[in-house]
């Protein structure tokens, strides 16, 4: 981009930041381009937009994120404009109501804390995870206060922990009584700890308050808080549009003397792609409904799998009473429904070679899967109580350890099938089984035969996804700690004989590195080599589809990653293979809504969601990159979210 464009972008960034900077009583600025509203109701936000997640603990703050982006603008192709993108943002914050002890009571719940403030010893570890890295203000009885960074929570209490005071050993409770003539109300409550000047200091929780404007980490949210946050964030498009308009109002953009002449409303023209036809076995096919994106599964899978020998095991909860009665009769009913559905769709399967009930013990489950492997089973099915949550990862680990396919089903779903004959549920389970066992449920046929030929004839697709470890907490970051968990790179490719048969693998890499130079080359060589072995020829085209890359990294990818991929193709004797790299971004902040007149014409004026299959490739797209927005799905609830693909 030219120097002039950068200057314009910087001006817009500064001009739109003036109101938040000059109104600290209305905006709290945290990070570049992001501010949070102190009184969101001033700008037509309602309490449901930012609810309290838990009393005395956390709330959902309403914020605004703005960024400057280069777009084509209303003039269309070959035009470069600078646009401002405004997004309503919601982030969990720590509540400042009450004391640290009040927050502790909210975290552990009424069953783990008593009236005297004492906490079950088993809850201390959870409190450490919740409170570590939190900034609190210690209020001393003499009116003095100081801010400290918590390092954790101690099992010791003010009544039991002894400190050295001028050569005398006294309890924390006695220390406050002597020095401040302060009688602690909760001497049996655990003490908060802070590592300061090479030593650990201890503070009574009842004297600590939470410093304002602290974001809560995802690891500090419990299941109820996450559910409440999702509910408040997953709003229908009419509400989302209102919230974005309120955010624009809160930034004073429409009234700003700098920007009065700058606002241009853009109506980008979209087009809908024709839906594909779904092909099944026995030459049957199903049409996709263009508005809902749904289709009906036909009788036979495109390529049904064969299960030669398998076993099924029930794992009930040890002490929890099950919601459903699921004994031997119900187990037999489920097996019968499962086998019938498999056979109906062309799979070859007989009754299970083994059927037992296992205790929810990790060692027993591991041993059981090992025995199945020794007895030449190629598939193991588990029906696990909903209350047993510690075995799923173990089962998946044993799948890798013993190289045997497993499937784990919640008991509640199995009971619905056995007792109520839920055909759609059992079909979903069988579809998953068929894919796991190497079958293909269906393929697709595109309306444009020319494009369809490009998909089938000599094209290798490699899809790449990167998952980074969770962010470090404030306490770890303050001490320069490095992540001890690697990043995981998963990939899938149609490198087997059939062009719609995708298989994959995963690799580990250095944590939080988005540049994958050598890793991409290794994956390319692996997939191209297997493609050649399966089909007897090198691919004519390679389409590499990946995520985990921001726009700022495109230049680096062009300079380093793509040449490494081309080198890998040369080493596989596929130098003539054409290369296309598609980058999918889901973290962009552009929100597109259907025009209200279009919604009225379809009889759904309250639903501004864009229909599935809609493509937008002008005006809001990048002026230099080949870019388009695509809505791949139909939103069941809330607002549909378009991927931007470059």
CATH topology of the largest domain, by name, is Nucleotidyltransferase, domain 5
The helicity comes to 25-40%
In order across it, which strands form the biggest sheet? 14-29-30-31-28-27-24-25-26
The chain-level mean pLDDT equals 84
Shape: globular
> What's the alpha carbon Rg, rounded to whole Å?
30 Å
What characteristics describe this protein?
Alpha-D-Glucose-1,6-Bisphosphate, Chain A, domain 4; Rossmann fold; 16 helices; 9-stranded mixed β-sheet
How would you sum up this structure, described in words?
With 646 residues, the protein is α+β, with helices and mostly antiparallel strands. It has 4 domains: 3-94 and 220-250, Alpha-D-Glucose-1,6-Bisphosphate, Chain A, domain 4, CATH 3.30.530; 100-211, paz domain, CATH 2.170.260; 304-436, Rossmann fold (3-Layer(aba) Sandwich), CATH 3.40.50.2300; 444-645, 2-Layer Sandwich (Nucleotidyltransferase, domain 5), CATH 3.30.420.10. The chain is built from 16 helices and 31 strands. The strands form 8 sheets. Strands 14-29-30-31-28-27-24-25-26 form a 9-stranded mixed sheet, with helices on both faces. Strands 1, 2, 3, 4 and 5 form a 5-stranded antiparallel sheet that branches. β15 (277-279) and β16 (285-287) form a beta hairpin. α7 (328-344) packs across α10.
């Amino acid at each position: 981009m030219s120097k002039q464009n950068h200057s314009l972008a910087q001006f817009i960034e500064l001009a739109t930041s003036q109101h938040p900077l000059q109104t600290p009583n209305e905006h709290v600025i945290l990070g570049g381009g992001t501010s949070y509203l102190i009184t969101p109701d001033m700008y037509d936000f309602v309490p449901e937009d930012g609810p309290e997640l838990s009393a005395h603990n956390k709330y959902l703050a309403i914020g605004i994120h703005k960024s400057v982006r280069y777009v084509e603008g209303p003039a269309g192709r070959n035009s470069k404009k600078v646009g401002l993108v405004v997004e309503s943002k919601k982030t969990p914050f720590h509540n400042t109501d009450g004391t640290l002890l009040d927050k502790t009571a909210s975290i552990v719940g009424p069953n783990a804390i008593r009236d005297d403030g004492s906490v079950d010893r088993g809850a201390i570890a959870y409190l450490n995870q919740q409170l570590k890295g939190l900034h609190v203000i210690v209020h001393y009885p003499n009116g003095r206060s100081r801010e400290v960074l918590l390092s954790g929570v101690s099992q010791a209490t003010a009544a039991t922990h002894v400190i050295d005071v001028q050569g005398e050993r006294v309890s924390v409770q006695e220390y406050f009584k002597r020095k401040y003539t302060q009688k602690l109300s909760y001497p049996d409550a655990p003490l908060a700890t802070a590592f300061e000047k090479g030593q650990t200091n201890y503070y009574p929780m009842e004297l600590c308050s939470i410093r304002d404007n602290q974001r809560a980490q995802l690891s500090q949210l419990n299941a109820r808080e996450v559910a409440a946050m999702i509910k408040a964030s997953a709003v229908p498009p009419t509400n989302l549009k209102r919230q974005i308009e309120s955010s624009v109002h809160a930034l004073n953009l429409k009234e700003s003397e700098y920007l009065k002449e700058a606002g241009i409303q853009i109506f980008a023209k979209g087009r809908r792609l024709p839906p594909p036809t779904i092909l099944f076995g026995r030459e049957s096919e199903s049409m996709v409904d263009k508005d809902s994106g749904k289709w009906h599964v036909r009788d036979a899978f495109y390529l049904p799998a064969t299960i030669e020998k398998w076993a099924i095991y029930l794992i009930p909860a040890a002490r929890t009473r099950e919601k459903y009665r699921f004994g031997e009769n119900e187990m037999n009913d489920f097996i019968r429904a499962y086998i019938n559905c498999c056979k109906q769709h062309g799979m070859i399967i007989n009754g299970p070679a083994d059927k037992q009930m296992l205790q929810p013990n990790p060692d027993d489950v591991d041993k059981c899967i090992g025995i199945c492997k020794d007895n030449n089973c190629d598939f193991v099915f588990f029906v696990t109580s909903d209350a047993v949550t510690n075995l799923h990862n173990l089962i998946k680990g044993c799948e890798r350890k013993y190289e045997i396919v497993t499937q784990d089903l919640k008991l509640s779903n199995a009971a619905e099938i056995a007792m109520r004959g839920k055909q759609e549920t059992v079909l979903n389970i069988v579809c998953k089984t068929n894919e796991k066992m190497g079958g293909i449920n269906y393929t697709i046929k595109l309306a444009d035969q020319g494009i369809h030929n490009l998909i089938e004839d000599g094209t290798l697709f490699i899809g790449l996804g990167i998952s980074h470890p969770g962010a470090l907490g404030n306490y770890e970051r303050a001490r320069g700690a490095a992540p001890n968990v690697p990043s995981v790179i998963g990939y899938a490719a149609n490198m087997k004989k059939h062009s719609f048969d995708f298989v994959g693998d995963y690799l580990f890499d250095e944590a939080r590195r988005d540049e994958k130079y050598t890793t991409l080359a290794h994956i390319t060589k692996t997939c191209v080599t297997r493609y050649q072995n399966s089909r007897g020829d090198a691919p004519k085209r390679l389409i590499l589809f990946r995520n985990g890359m921001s726009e700022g990294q495109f230049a680096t990818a062009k300079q380093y990653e793509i040449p490494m991929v081309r080198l890998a193709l040369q080493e596989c004797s596929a130098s003539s293979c054409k290369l296309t790299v598609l980058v999918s971004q889901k973290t962009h902040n552009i929100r597109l809504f259907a025009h209200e007149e279009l919604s009225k014409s379809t009889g759904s004026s309250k639903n501004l969601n864009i229909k599935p299959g809609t493509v937008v490739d002008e005006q809001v797209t990048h002026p230099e990159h080949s870019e388009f927005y695509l809505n791949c799905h139909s939103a069941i609830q809330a607002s549909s979210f378009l991927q931007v693909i470059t």
